[in-house]
Each structure stands twice: as C-alpha cells, then as structure tokens.
Amino acid sequence: MAAVLVHIDLDGETPNASSLQALAAGRHVASSWGATLYAAVLVHEPMRASPDSTAQVLTSAKLPRLEVTQAALARAGADKVIVALTDAVIAPLWAAIGNAWQGVLDHLRPRLVLFGADSPSAAELAPRTGARIGARLLVRARAIGVDDVELRDRDGGYARVGDSGAAVAMIGRADVAPRGEDEIDLFVLAVPGGADERIELASTAPAEIAHTSGTVIAIGDDVARDRDVVADSLLLARFLGAQVIGGPGAARAGALEPGAVVERSTAIAPELCITVGAAQIDLAGSTRLVKIGAPGGKLVDGALDGLARDGLADLVKRLGNT
After folding, report:
1. Last residue of a domain, one of 155, 176, 191
2. Which of 109, 150, 178, 250 places its Cα 20 to 30 Å from the Cα of 208?
3. Among candidates 271, 260, 263, which has minimal Cα distance to 301?
4. 132 φ, ψ to 5°?
5. Binning pLDDT at 50, 70 and 90, where does residue 158 land?
6. Residue 314, CA atoms < 13 Å, CB-side half-sphere
7. pLDDT in tens, 110-119
8. 215 pLDDT band (50/70/90 cuts)?
9. Cα–Cα distance for residue pair 93/70, rounded to 1 Å
10. For the residues of 42-64, what is the DSSP string, one character each?
C-alpha cells in the first residue's frame, strides 16, 4: 500500500500549526488514494549505535514524553506516527537532521511527502527531500476534489494517484480533517549517525527572524537617494501600517530610520513585502511579494513595471483617493 508521509515540526510537545495543515491535506489525499498516512517526528535521543548500522524499529509502544504529541496527531487524522530518534540536536537544517530524515524516507519509501509551507523545516527539508527521492516539488499546494483528491499548487503543478513517480508538496492551506482515533500506533525508528560532523552549529536555537507579521516596504539601494521615492515609501507605509526597511546602502543614503537596516543575509517573514527598486531581501516562502519598479516572476504575487518612482507615486495617489 502507498504511503503518504507528513513531516511534523514541534513547538514543545505541540505539533506546529502549519504541520497540522499539511496533515489535514494528507488525510484527504490518503483517504482518496487508499494510502496509509504517516506523521513523522524527529526526536533528539543520544544512542549507543555504530555509525555504520542501519535504522531499526525499536518498538511500537508509547513514549511517555510524546503522549501529548501522539494524541494530537491521532486527532488530526494520522494513521500511524513514526518517531525517528537521532543523536543530533533537532534544528531545521539538513546538516543537523538530514540523516534522521533520510532514515525515515528509506524506511517508508513514501509515494507523497508533505510539509507545512510555513513550518520551520519546510524551506530547508522540502527541496532537499525532492532531490533525494527524485520527486516533483509543489510549492504552497492544496488538496482539491472530493472522491479523487489531488494536490495542486499555484504554479500549475499537481500530484494525483495515477501519476508515476513521487511528489513532495509544501501545503499552504487545507480544510480541517475529520477527528481521528484518540490512540494510534507509534513506531520508534533508531537512526544512528547524528549530525554532519563537518558542520558546527553555533546555536541550536532557531535563528531570529525579523518582522514576522504585518507588512514591510523594502527600499532598494538604487532608489534610496531619490527623495520622492523615500517620501512616497513613507506615505505608503502610513497607509498600510507598514515599516520601511532596507539595506546598509539605503541607510547611508539617509532613507531609513535607526533600527530599520536589514542585512541581505537576515531572513524576514512578514505577511506582505513590497519592494521598491532592486531591493535584495531574504524572504520566507510564506511571504506575499509585490515589486515596484522591477519585473515580476514565478514567485511574485504582483508587480508594477517601469520606473519605481512612477509606479510608487501612482499607487500612493490611488490609495490616498480611496
């Protein structure tokens, strides 16, 4: 029987909300396909195992410290929970948990792998999972259909039961799945090897992600010296309740308030980001992106081509008249 596998990130003992969205989508798909729905959790557990040994199922009993997690995943619709124990400290990096996750993939050989698009591990693990198992990657997909459910993403990609090959999907939205059993089987998989010893983690805490809600307007260095652009950016920010940010170049041009400088390597995750000019910003996959003065693209939700100052002035004028 085909397996549908959902990666679950944990917030303490509670499954991440985005991971539960992926599990809800997985429940619909698995029921339609006649597949078994597995929820996979990675847990740090130092083990005494030779580094060249293979992953082994240790038990199918409960783990006391995961009872809350197991019950939540059961109610969310999982058929089975698989816990991968690893020497590595859990962090949303392939270098840290890739070995344990690969052990789960090798053990189940899933037909479909799902991640919550906004879950901590999705951006790192989903593309690498697709590459490892030779699967198609669907970005911000959702389950559609009733009797024969399929997954579709916003770029036209899809996965359905009759397709050949595997698929990996980052779930952006899903209807709530019916309540499942209170208790389901939990399998413990011991995966020796731990983290990649070539990688030294400076910290096991998640990196700070700035601007995790609301709207930001990012001014590019190329337009930061244009006083009209800066003035209209501030006006647009006032209309939208947004914060104006930019890089060191924009700061040197005097376009930013103190504390509004964002380095190019700093990840930010607002609900909406509007870039003005050629702003270079590292955005989370869940952020909606609108560009002013730059062409759109595959992952851009909207764009105003032409000169940034003209597009920005027109937008501010329209908002001021509403």
Report:
1. 191
2. 250
3. 271
4. -70, -40
5. confident
6. 10
7. 999 999 998 9
8. confident
9. 24
10. EEE------TTPPPEEEESS--G
Spatial distance between the Cα atoms of 80 and 23, rounded to a whole number of angstroms: 12
Closest residue by Cα to residue 33 from 3, 74, 64? 3
Structure tokens at 133: 């198992």
Q: Are 244 and 174 in a shared domain?
A: no
162 compared with 227, residue with greater pLDDT: 227
Asked if residue 35 has pLDDT above 70, the reply is yes
Segment 197-203 mean pLDDT: 55
For residue 87, the SS3 value is: coil
Longest CA–CA span in the chain (Å) reads 70
Return the CATH number at 12.
3.40.50.620
The DSSP code sequence of 75-109 is HTT-SEEEEEEESSPP-SSHHHHHHHHHHHHHHH-
In a domain, 208, yes or no: no
Residue 56 gets which letter from DSSP?
A: E
Which residue range is the domain that position 226 belongs to?
215-320
CA distances to 157, 161, 275, 298 from 302, in Å: 20, 33, 11, 10
Please indicate, yes or no, whether residues 136 and 231 belong to a single structural domain of this protein: no
For residue 272, the domain's CATH number is 3.40.50.1220
Residue 90 domain-assigned? yes
Q: Do the Cβ atoms of 187 and 60 come closer than 8 Å?
A: yes
40 and 179, same domain (yes or no): yes
pLDDT (average), residues 153-161: 84
Rounded distance between C-alpha atoms, residue 68 and residue 62, angstroms: 11
Do 165 and 234 sit in the same domain of this protein? no
Q: Is 288 helix (H, G, I), strand (E, B) or coil?
A: strand
Same-domain pairing of 77 and 169? yes
Please count the other Cβ atoms lying within 10 Å of the Cβ belonging to residue 161.
Answer: 15
Both structure tokens of 281: 């910003």
